[in-house]
Amino acid sequence: MDLIQNLWFGFGVAVTPMNLLLCLIGALVGTLIGVLPGIGPLATIAMLLPITFGLPPVGALIMLAGIYYGAQYGGSTTSILINIPGESSSVVTALDGHQMAKQGRAGPALAIAAIGSFIAGCFSTVLVAALGVPLTALALKFGPAEYFSLMVLGLVFAVVLAKGSILKAIAMVMLGLLLSCVGSDIETGQSRMAFDIPELADGIGFVTVAMGVFGYAEIMRNLEQEESREIVEAKITGLMPTWKDFKDSAGAIGRGTILGSILGILPGGGAVIASFAAYTFEKKISKNPERFGRGAIEGVAAPESANNAAAQTSFIPLLTLGIPPNAVMALMVGAMTIHGIVPGPQVMTKQPELFWGLICSMWIGNLMLVVINLPLVGVWVSLLRVPYRLLFPAILIFCAIGVYSINNAPADAIMVAVFGFVGYFLVKTEFEPAPMLLGFVLGPLMEENLRRAMLIARGDPTTFLTRPISGGLLAIAAILILLALLPMIRGKRDEVFVESET
Amino acid sequence: MSEGTGGAAQAPDSRRLIRSPRDFWGGLALVAVAVFAIWASSDLPGMRGFAFGPGTAPRMFAYCLMALGFGVMLTGFLTDGPPLEDFTFSGTFGGAVLVVALIPIYFFAAQIGKMVPGVSHDVVLAAAGTIVVVVLAFLLTHLAPRGPLFITAATIIFAIAVRPLGLVIASYVSLVISANATKEVHWIETLIWCAVLTTFCAVLFPYGLNLPLQLWPRF
Question: Helix, strand, or coil here: B219?
Fold first, then answer.
């Protein structure tokens, strides 16, 4: 029973007082910021990344992971209590959750969201542990050609599962790849597109892009919208769901968990698409779908379980293959690199305490969220009364100080602002910035593997097709693109996202 | 460049040349980026035999981006789409103007630093830059939305002031400027709140997190 042995080892790492404390702080800070509308988990992690600089790598990643699922959790609280989702993966939770709150059932809605998330968290923790070893073994057999094809497949998944036009998503990936070329060439060290600007010689910082495109652009857009918040004023009485609530939501939690786990592993939307898909699925199979949107508890249970499951299983490709499946995981790559860890299959063999400790801390963190946060709902509600005009300067200065402190480079802060209005323009013209970030992170890796594979094959590009694993991966990628372009499937894909707007 | 200020008034009209302006302008911007990248990487050596040179990958990505950009532009001609959102261009360029305005100030400060002994150029840059950026941001409020303008202005001010003037002054000034990003500025509330935030940052980052940040001016 290697699995149990490994998990036992992981718990040994995760329950040291220091790591427990970091996990708790991460989960609490994540919830705190997740609750605030207008700052998603991405901006949160980017903003709080500098906080973890002084920590040992294991502790730092445990805390960052805590921030991530804490933010997922906090987002649902906001969705339920005011009709604004705290972050994008809680958009669908708002549909039924807020209706429940209006009917005076905010307590049960919050509780089911927490319990569903916890059950999903338990399941996906085991899944991460179980899939970790075989996937790592597979990844170690990969050569450069296979790695390159795998990354192509990952990006194709990201494109297909992204919201909006596929063409635009591919263009965004390409823009990310191009941006990643700025700086010095990996092999010759020659400066590329840096115009002798010393700040660009090392390339564009990863956190800089993420903070600008997600954090700053978000603030700029939020400021254009009128502030309207409808907090449910009624006192939240009776947190405990009734027996009937449990019975109604049990199936939804199970289905949401499984759907979320699968979608989380796939590169692309991660938690966001998982919650949309789970809600749509639940509505489809329900005997009386007209209840959805009017306070059906399944409509809270399914997406919340799904987004939490997906949040955790999205660590699988990152930890085993070294490939971030979504933008948040891309940010984790940045965090790992700053701490001197190269993500990939070697993490599990060389730093088992990091791998297993992180996995086990996720389970502990989920437990903490349930135990601590339900009693704290009152605190979160009062936080929601803070107006945005007080909030955004705080976010801004945290970002500015944070990005400055990474390299002590003032120019990095200005770059964030530049990427801020770049992101603003992208959102205004309906380009999704997430695929760009993914392309940006995978860029150097892709280029390196492409060059190596070409060198090994003596300049013969057919090597990608003739090597069986590589060829297979590329074939899957091609089929995916074709499928996504078929009108019938396209309609279905749009339908999943349209759900939130109706 | 025409601004799609009409909002709902300009309903998609299949007789117009550009039927989906968001696609058209977005695609055009990507083509522009790609052309710029092709020019910027033109001096880099390409393939050497069957080995990639430093310039191969950037050019490959740039040409792909150009093709995709044209593709997106083409959909702007062929399919109907919603009109441009308000401030698409003014918001983007409003921020960009402030960053570009910094470049001459940077060189000006370097000159002053060389000519006047005892005055370090980064103090000049911080002082002159702050004044110019703030004045410019307020002047531009008639043309561009406040959000991008003052968020950019505040960040620039933080960046140029944090080294010479220290974290406390840089944060406070930048926070007060950023508060102008909304129309309703409650001045007394802003001044107090910014002081609270500055204190918090001055304690958290250097002491709580042990980051090497200078708190006060180096005089």
Answer: coil
